[in-house]
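Risk register update: the risk that structure generation would not scale has been downgraded. Supporting records follow, first protein first.
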Amino acid sequence: MFKILNLKDHPKYAARAAEWFSDKWKLAAGIYYESIEKSISGGTAVPSWYIVTDSSGRIIAGAGIIDNDYHDRPDLTPNLCALFVEPEFRLKGIARSLLDRARADLYRAGIERLYLITDHTDFYERCSFEFLTMVSELDGGKIRMYVSENRRFATHEA
């Protein structure tokens, strides 16, 4: 059994979640912590950070919703970022459930679309994302941009 937690509603996990994301994506924990704290105190839908815990409270997955995931299209916002599921918990529907929850929350907040950049095309297409365009990453490389219509997930429970 697992629980999807929006860190806005569970601020006690902020520091632990920042360290977990840092470990997975090799960015400084302070970058994650600052965004997580902004999500907790900001009163807006973006940024938002989610973790998934197992029955013992261990973080087994997580993802963020931020304005821009380091690409040249600030008009295509908000963006999914940092989605990660621990290897032993993959192929159990956790990532899809996390995506569905985030899209439902965004829709309830009046945000109709969620964007992401990725090379993992098959997975996201199975999760109702559609290819939109190629964008330039801030380091100059090109990457695929996908979009999802959040209204499809409006009935997903929080």
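Supporting record for the second protein:
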Amino acid sequence: MPSYLHTCYRIGDIDRSVAFYEKLGFEERGRLPIRDEAINVFMGMPGEDPRLELTYNHGVDAYDLGTGYNHIALLIEDLDGPLERLAADGIEPEKPPYRIREGGSRLCFVRDPDGYRIELLER
């Protein structure tokens, strides 16, 4: 039976991206150089296997995200804490937290340093 391993996307600056994801609760689990071409950085939530692979290709600092990708989603206990930590770095949600339906969980979207969308959904 197949099992889901990870999501990978390309980044323009390792330290900037790792700092962003750490503010969302991820932990850096390791770095793997790929010859002289790239470095893969593996990130995971506490107690979980690494599910996010960030690939830095030497000499490339930006990528065209295209129109097909939308977002990854994180279920978090407290929406306000991560938003405050991100705001300290000038990162604001696309729009203030909201609920899709009455009584539903609060959510919002932020963009990582490379422009990838992250949905933050409060438990």
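The longest helix spans residues 14-23. On this basis the risk owner (M.S.) recommends closing the item.
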